[in-house]
Every structure is written in structure tokens, then in C-alpha cells.
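Hey team,

Filing this mostly as a record. A colleague (T.K.) asked me to run one chain through the structure pipeline before their review meeting, and I want the input and output archived in the tracker in case anyone asks later how it was produced. No errors, nothing strange. Just documentation.

Input sequence:
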Amino acid sequence: MFQLLHYYHSRNPEEASAVGVAVLDDLLSLLHFGLKDKGAVNVILVQATRSSIETYLDTLTSVFIHSSEKEPNRPSIKRLDDSGIPFVSEDVFQRELDVISKRRMQLLGAVNSDNHDWPKAKD
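Output structure:
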């Protein structure tokens, strides 16, 4: 099934599956690594979705795409300071993201192989 998802292509990055998966993974990383109160979200759902993305990446990198040689721009917790939601510090969050740098390079490889750029944060 993941191979079929990879074959879907859109010229519009906002409709491209690889870009959508990258945005979803960044959101899940914010929830998984950034929230102080893990009980604020459905942890099982977050973990299951992260696991599905990992399977998607493993399938693609074994057949279709190559990981990027560099990691894409990382999300930042600082932008969410005024949200009223308790997040860990920016330093702690960035250290946690070190653990998934390979995964993020695979995601960037998928986005680039679909002829798109890594999505930029919107203000």
C-alpha cells in the first residue's frame, strides 16, 4: 500500500502526500517530545501513527527513495510559548529531536524525490 501512496504525485505541495506525511510527522514530534503532560493526548494513537510513518519510510527507502544527506529545518517549540499549553524547553525539545534525525532525513528524501521542498513554518 505504501508503494501506491508514493506513486501519487501532485504539483501543488499542499496536496502532495510526501509533504503531508512530513508535516504530520513534525506535528507528532511536537506532541511526543514537546508536551510536558503526555496525558493531554492519546499517546497510543500518537505512537501508532508514528509507527505507521516509520513503516512507510522503511518501505520507501528500501525501494524508491534515498535519504537526504542533511536534516531538514526542525520545528520549534518557541513559537508555541503563548499557546497556554505546557511544553518542555526549546533545548530539551531539540535534544529529543536528535534521536530522530535519520527519520527526518528520510522524510526530506521522500519530499525531494517528489520534487518538492521541505514545508516552511507558517506564521
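Quick notes for T.K.: The two ends are 34 Å apart (CA to CA). Residues 1-7 have pLDDT under 50 and may be disordered.
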